[in-house]
C-alpha cells in the first residue's frame, strides 16, 4: 500500500496529466448529484440552455461572471470555478507541449555522444 512518504520529493508541477478536465465536467457531475435539470439551472443562472450545454460539454470557458453566478446558485465559491478553468487551460498547454516534444525528431545517437 502506498503512503504519503512514497511521494516525498515529488514535484507535482512536473506531472503532466494524460487529459485535461474541463470545469464543465465537474459542474455536470454536481448538477446530476443534486438532481438539477439543465433547463432549470440555465434559467436560474439567467443563460440560454444552449449556453449551459456548451459549458457542460467543454465548448465554452468559465468566465469570472459565470463563476459568480455559479457561486450564488450552488453556494460553491467562485474561486473554485476560476481556478478549475485556469488549471484546465494550463493542463492543455502542458499536454500540447509534451506532444510537441514527443513528436520532435530525436537527435542521432552519434550526436548525443559527440565530444
What does it look like?
The protein has 115 residues and is mostly helical. The protein contains 6 helices and no strands. It is elongated and about 65 Å long. InterPro entries: Cro/C1-type_HTH (IPR001387), Lambda_DNA-bd_dom_sf (IPR010982), Toxin_antidote_HigA (IPR013430).
Report, as a whole number of angstroms, the end-to-end distance: 45 Å
Following the backbone from N to C, one meets helices and strands in this order, namely: HHHHHH
How many helices?
6
Q: From the alpha-carbon coordinates, what is the Rg to the nearest angstrom?
A: 20 Å
Uncertain runs = none
Kindly give the count of domains: 1
CATH class: Mainly Alpha
The overall average pLDDT, rounded, is: 91
CATH topology: 434 Repressor (Amino-terminal Domain)
Strand-residue proportion: under 5%
Number of strands: 0
The percent of residues in helical segments reads: 55-70%
Organism: Tannerella sp. oral taxon BU063 isolate Cell 1/3
GO molecular function, one term: DNA binding
Keywords: DNA-binding
Domain HTH cro/C1-type: 27-81
Topology diagram in text:
Blueprint: H1 23-34, H2 38-45, H3 49-56, H4 64-74, H5 78-103, H6 109-112
Helix pairs in contact: 2-3, 4-5
Describe this structure in a few short sentences.
By secondary structure, this protein is an all-alpha fold. The chain has 6 helices and no strands.
